[in-house]
Batch of 2 targets.
Target 1
Amino acid sequence: MEEILVIAEHREGSLRDVTFELLGFALGLAAKENFSVTAVVPGLAAEKIETLKTVCDTILHCDDQRFANYNASDYLAALSALVAERKPRLVVAGHTSQGMDLAPALALAAGLPLITDCLDFGWGEEGAVASRQPYAGKINSHLTLRPADTYMISLRPGTFEAETNSGKSATIETFKAPGESAPGRRFIEYLAAEVEDIDIADADILVSIGRGIGKPENIPLAEEFAKAVGGTLSCSRPVADNQWLPKTRQVGTSGKTVRPKIYIALGISGAFQHQAGMKNADTIIAVNTDPAAPIFSVAHYGIVGDILEVLPALTEKFTSP
Amino acid sequence: TMHIIVCVKQVPEVVDADLRITRDGGGVFTEDLEFDINEWDAFAVEAAVQLKEARGDRVTAVTLGDDDDESVLRHALAMGADAAVRIDREEFEGSDPLGIARGLHAAVKDLEPDLILTGAQSSDAGWGQAGVLLAGLMGLPYASLVVDFEVKGKTIVAQRELEANTLERVELSMPCALTIQTGIHKPRYVSIMGIKKVRRIDIDLLEAGDLGLEGLIGADASAVAHRRLSLPETGGQAEFLEGSLDEICTRAAQIIREKGGLA
Ligand SMILES: Cc1cc2nc3c(=O)[nH]c(=O)nc-3n(C[C@H](O)[C@H](O)[C@H](O)COP(=O)(O)OP(=O)(O)OC[C@H]3O[C@@H](n4cnc5c(N)ncnc54)[C@H](O)[C@@H]3O)c2cc1C
Ligand SMILES: Nc1ncnc2c1ncn2[C@@H]1O[C@H](COP(=O)(O)O)[C@@H](O)[C@H]1O
C-alpha cells in the first residue's frame, strides 16, 4: 500500500501538538486515497511514542540520542535516506520552526517538489493540488502541481484538527541513525523565555495593538483605554520587534497563547502566526481600516475604522460619567 | 574580515492595499501597489551592516528581479552594503522557490561568501524556502529563523526562534547561511538623501542565459503547473458595527461591559 510519511515533532522529550494535527490531515487523505500513514519519530524515548499508536498505521522509530533535539544535519541525513528507501507518495511536515528549517533542505536532497505553508493538499482530477494563502492571508491560491512520484508539503499549524484516537494500533519499526554525525551544525541548548513583567495570559481583557498604531507616541491612547476598561496591553510582533512594548507582551506562535474574556485587536492585520495565539478568546473585537484584513475572519465584532479616532471616543464611554 | 552576501527582494505592500486578481486568475494586479524591501530582508541587511561596522566586513546585496527592482539594491546600499548584484528576472518568470534559489546560487557561488544572509520568508509569496534552498545548493550548514548571532572565530553561534517564547542556540561552522527573522536589530531608516548618495554605485547585472541554468528555471521547471487565485471571504462570522463614530463606540462599550463582566 502506498504511504504518507509524517514527520513527527517533539521538543524537550515530548511530542508537540502539531504532530497530531499533521496526522489528522494525513489520516483523512489516506482514507480517501487508500494509503497508509507512517509517523517518523527520530529521537524520542520508546515510552513517549505510545500516544501515536492509535493515530497511524506504522511508527518508524529511532531513539538515538543524536536526534533528541532537532538538528538539521542529522535529521536531513536520516530522513533523506528514509524517503529514498520507502518512496512514499507524500511527505508531510509542519510549517513550524522545525519544518521551515528542515523541509526545503529535505526536499532538495531527496529531489521532491515542495509546497510550504499549505492549508490543504490532495489529488483531484487534474492531479495533485495544494491550497495556500499568500499575500499576508489576503489571497487564496489554488495550485495544481506537476506530476511526481513523491510530493512534500508543510502544513500550516492550527489548520487541521488534532487526531488523538482513530482506533488504529500501529506497528513499530525501528530505523538506524546514519553512522557518522553530520558536521556543520550543532545544537547547544534551549533558552527559556525572558523574565515576565506581567503575564498577559492571566488577563481577562487584552487591549492588543499592532503596527497600525503607527508610532510609539500613539501608545498612550491604547494605555488609557486599557486603564478605563481594566485591561492589559498586549501586541503583535512588529510592536515588540520595534521595542515599543516588551517582547513578553507579544501574542502569537512565537509569543504567548492567550484566552481572555475579551481580546480587542487594534490595527492588527491577523497573520496566521498572530491568530494562533488569540483565536480562542471568548470574544474578539477587531478595529482595522482595511475591511479585508484577515483578523475579521476570526473576530466576533468588527469595526472598520481608524484606531486613532476610535480609541479616544471609546475610552470616553468608560470615563465620562 | 568576511564577505557577507545578503539576498534582498522587492515586494508589494499588501496589508493596507485593495488587492485585485488579474483576469486570467493567475496573478495579482501590482500596478497600483507600493513596493518596498521585504520586511525580513531589511533585518538581514541591518545584521550584515552591523557586522561591517564592527569588524570591517564586506557586504554584497543580491536580488533577482527586473529593472524596477534595483531600488531594493539601492535601499541596501544606502543602509551600508558595499556592492550590489542583480540577476535579471526575465528567464525566471514562473519559477518556484527552487528556481529562484538556483539563480541566487549561480550568482553567489563565485563570490566566495563567508556568510550568506536571507530573510526567513518573503511577505508576498510567504514560502520561507529560498534561503534554506540556497544553503543546500551551496552545500553549507545553515540555521533558519535567526534572531541573534555572534561570530566566534571560525564559527557562528546563532539563536533560532522556536515556538512559544523559546529559543535554541546552535553552532555553525563557517562558511554558513542564516535566514533572518524580524526583530534581530531594528533596520536603520533610509532617507531620500541616503538613496541619492548611492545612485552612482554600479550594479552588476547577470543574465540567466549566462548562468547555465537552462531547463532548471522558469515555469517549465516549477513544481507548480497552474495557479488559480481568488479573494478569501472576509469577515467570517463577525458582526460589523456601523453608524456614526459615537454610535459604534456606544455599542462597542456595551459589548465590552457585557462580555467582560464590567456591567
Ligand atoms: C516564524 C514566524 C513567527 C511569527 N510569530 C508571530 C507572533 O508570535 N505574533 C505575531 O503577531 N506575529 C508573528 N509573526 C509575524 C506575522 O507574520 C505578521 O508579520 C505580523 O503579525 C503582522 O503584525 P501586524 O498585524 O501588527 O502588522 P501588519 O500586518 O502590518 O498590519 C497592520 C494592520 O493595521 C491596519 N492599520 C493601519 N493603520 C491603521 C489605523 N490607523 N487604524 C486601524 N487599523 C490600521 C492595517 O490595515 C493592517 O491590517 C511571525 C512570523 C513568522 C515568519
Ligand atoms: N527574487 C529574490 N531576490 C533575492 N532574494 C530573494 C528573492 N526571492 C527570495 N529571496 C530571499 O529568500 C528569502 C525567502 O524567500 P521565500 O522563499 O520566497 O519566502 C527572502 O527573504 C529573500 O532574502
Note: The two ends of chain B are 65 Å apart (CA to CA).
Target 2
Amino acid sequence: MVAPLTTAPRVVSLGVETFSLELARLGVAVEHVAWRPPAGGDERLAALLARLDARRGDIDAANKEALGRMVEGQPVLVDCRPAREALALPDRTVLHAGPPIAWQGMCAPLRAAVLCAVRYEGWAANDDAAAALVEGGGIALAPCHHWQAAGPMTGIITRSMPVFVVENRAWGNRAHATINEGLGRVLRFGANDESVVARLRWLATEAGPLLGAALRASGGLDLRALMAQALRMGDEMHQRNVAASSLLARALMPHVARAGDRHHAVARLAEFIAGNDQFFLNVAMAAGKALADPAGGVAGSTLVTAMARNGTDFGIRVSGLGERWLTAPVSTPVGLYFPGFTAADANPDMGDSAIVETIGLGGAAMAASPAVARFVGAGGLGEALAATEEIAEISLGAHPYFHIPTLDDRGAPVGIDVRLVVETGIAPLINTGIAGHAPGTGQVGAGVVRAPLACFELALEALALGLTDGEGRV
Amino acid sequence: MPAFNRIWTSAYHDSVTLMRLARDIEAVPGVRRAAAMMGTPQNRALLAEAGLLAPEGDKATPNDLVIAVVADDASALDAAENAARAALSARPAGAPGGGAKARPRTLDSALRLMPDATLALISVPGAYAAAEAMKALRAGLHVMLFSDNVPLDAEIALKRFALERGLFLMGPDCGTAILDGVPLGFANAVARGRIGIAAASGTGVQEVACLIAREGEGLSHAIGVGGRDLSDQVGGLMMERALEALAADPATAVICVIGKPPGPAVARRLAARVRALGKPCVAHFMGEAADAGAGAWHRAATLEDAALAVVALARGQTPRAREFTAPAGEIEALVEGAARRLAASQRFVRGVYAGGTLAYEAIGILSASLEDVGHAVTGAGAGHRVVDLGEDRFTVGRPHPMIDGSVRREWIEREAADPSTAVLLLDVVLGYGAHPDPVAEIAPALARAHAGADAAGRGLAVVASVCGTDADLQNRAGQVDALTALGALVMPSNAQAARLAALIATWAVRAVR
C-alpha cells in the first residue's frame, strides 16, 4: 500500500546533510544515509549491481529463504569419532583448510602440516619420503569444506584423527571439526615436530574416544543455546572462546567422568581442556559449517555461505552459485604478536575458521567481545560497537538467537550479502590467529583481516550475468 | 643483552590487553624487546624461548603478571613498569559506547532502521542519482530527486516506473517541496492552509509560497515535478499526477501551477485536466502573458501575480495584477534618487541570482521594457544581463549559491566593477537548506562594490528582493534591514525588483539623452 504523497512523509535522505538536519530539527522522522558512490564509483560494478537490482524481488525472496535456513538451524554436538568413521575419509587423503589448492601452490606452514599428517598416519617415515609421496600424487588433497568439515588454520584432517560431530537437527545435516590442539607447537599452525605427533596420538587414542563416549552418553549438547550464552559472556567465538570452552567443559565433564573408567585419562582430558581457552573454537566451526551448509544452493540468493582461506587464496561460496569457490589472493592479518615475533614472521591468512563470521559471530559480533576489539585499533567498546555496526551494513538480517548485550540485545548481524559488500566496499572483518610463515614456528600472534573484495566482485559478476558453474547451475 | 622481569602479584589482565601492553612497553627508550604475560607455565616457557625470562619471572604463578624486557640495563624496567601502569590506567578517547550513532551507508540499510519510510530525498551527484532513485522506487518509496544532471531518458524511465506503482517521482532538479507541512530541500516556513502548488520550478515555489504567506494565506502542499516535466518529451507525467493528488486532497481548496511554458501536447492535456479538477486553478508559465479570460485556468504573468491571484480565488475575490506595492510617487522618487547618481557610462541592469526561476523571471520583466537583454541566464552579453549561479556549470564541485556565497561575491564585484553597470539586481533566498545569514555572505562584496564605484567617481544602484518569511530561521525582516543598511533598495517581490531595476536603467539613459 503506497502512502499518499499528501501525508507527512517519513524520509530517508541521501546526499546533502543539511536537508536531513533541518528535518530532524523540525521533528520530522528522517534517516540520513552516509552515502558514497556505489562500488567506489566503479561503473562496471555499479552496472552489475543495477542489473541485480532489477531482479530485486526474486533475490530478496531467495535470500529470505537462504537466511532462514541458516539462522533456524539447531546445531547439536553429538559425537567425537575418527574421521574414517565420521566422514568415511579414505586412506592417503589429507583434508586442508580453504578453497582447493595444489601442493605446488601451498604456503610453507600448510605444506609442513601436510607432511606431518602423512608421517602421523604412517604413510611415510619422514618428511622427505612424505614430500616425495605427495609430489608423486600419492596423496589426495581436498578442502575440508568438500567433506562436511571445517579446519582451523592449516585445517589438516586425516582418517585416524578424531573429529567432533555436529548434527543440525533442524535440517538433518552434519558437520565436523578436529579437537583443538591448544597453543604453541601444533599441527594447525604448521608445526610438525615429534611433540605435535605425540599430541595427535594422545587425541586419537585417549581424548577422542573419551569425548565420543561422553557425548554419545549425553544425548547431545545443544550448541545454539551454549553459543548464545557464551556471546553474553564476552566471547565472539573466534578470537575469544574462554566462556564457551568453560560452558562446554561444565556440560561435558560429568559425562566424561562417568564414561571414563580410567581416572587418570579423565584428569588428563580435564587438564587439557582447562589449559586451552580456544578449546571451543573447533566446535564453533563445526557448528558454523552445520548452520551454513543448508543455506547453500538457493537459486538467485546472494548470501555468502562460506569464507575460507588456505594461506594462498581466500575463497567464498555464495548460495545462488552452488558449490563454486570465488577466490582471490589472501591478505595478511594485522595484529599483535607474541614475545619474540613481529609482523615479519606472519604467514598470510589461513583457515576455515571464518565460517564463524559467516554465521554472524567472530568479527561480526565484535560488540559482544570488547576485549577482542583491542586487536582492531585503540580498542574499547566504542570500536567494538562500530565494527559490528559496520558488518550490519553488509548483512541481510539480525540473528534471532545470537544476541549482543552491548547492543541492547540486538541480534548479531548475520547473512553477508554479496551485493551489499560490493556496493559499500565494506569487506567482512575476520578475527584470526596468525601463523608463523616459517614451517614449525606455530602461532606468532593474533589479529584481524578483511576478506578480499575481489571475491565478492567475482561473485557479483557471476550472479548478475547468470554464469553457471559448469554443471548448468547458475 | 640481559632480560629483566618484574612480577605484579595477583594482577589479572586479558591476553589481548597484555599484547597491546607489550607493544606500549616496547616503545619505551632503552627497551629492546618486551612482553607482558600472565605467569602460567606455558607462558613462562614462551618467555624463556624468546629470551625474555629472568629468574624472578620464573617464580610467577598463573595469577601473576610478568613484565619482561630485554634492555641495556635494569633502569629500563622501571620505565617499562611506569609505561605499563600509564597504559593500563589510560581511558580510551570518547565515552564507552562510542557516542555517535552509526550511520547507514545504503538506502537498504536505512530502510532496515526505518521500515515505514515513505519518501526518499535524493541529493547525490547526478551520475548516481537515477540509480538511487530507481532503488527507492523499487522499495516502494516516493522520491524527491533534488539532484540535477539526470539524463532525460532516465527521467522518463523513472517517471513511468513510478506511475506503474502509484508513486511520485518529484524531479529531477526538484529544489523544493512541502508535503503536509514538511519542507523538503530548499523551502520556507509557511503556515498550513488551503492553497496547493504543483510546480516545475524550485525558487518559483519559494517565491509564490512566501508571497502567499505574506498575504495571510497558507499552503496545503507544494509538489515539485522537475523542470522538464512539462516538456512534450516527458509529457507532464508528474504534473498530471500532482494535479490529481491536489484535486483529491480535502485540505486543498485552490491550486497554483508554476513552470516553464508546457509543450503544445502537454498544454492541451493539462488544460483538459484542469477543467475537470473542480477546484479553481491559477497558472504561471514563465514568460507567458497574463490571461484572466475564459480559459481553463487563470493565467498570471509573474510569480507575484500568481500568488495574489490564488489568494484572491481562495477568498472568492477577483484576481488583480500588481505592478508595485508602493504608490507611484514613491517609486518615482526611488528611481530618480538612484538614477541621478549614475555616470553617463552606466546604462545596464546586471542581475546576479541564486534562484533559477527568479533569474528567468527577471529576464522576462527586463525584456518587456528594455532592449538588448541577454536571453539566457548565463550572464553573457554586453547589455542587460542576468546570471543564475545555481546553474549546473557554476555548481560543479562547489556548493549551491544559496548555501555558500563565494561565487556570488565574485560575480557581484565583477559586475559592479564594469563601468557600464547601472543597477545590480539581486535575489536573496531564505529558508530551510539555505545559508543561515545570506546577506552577511554577500555584504563584503556589496561594500567593496560601493567603495569601488565611489573611487571611480560613479554611483551604483543595488536593487534586491528577499524571498522568505519572518518565520524562516534567517528572519526576512532582519535580512531586509541588513540589505537596506548596505545601500540596497529592497522590493517586496522579485517582479517588483526587476521592474524597479528596469525603470532606473530607463531613467538613466533618458537623462543622458
Note: Residues 93-100 of chain B have pLDDT under 50 and may be disordered.
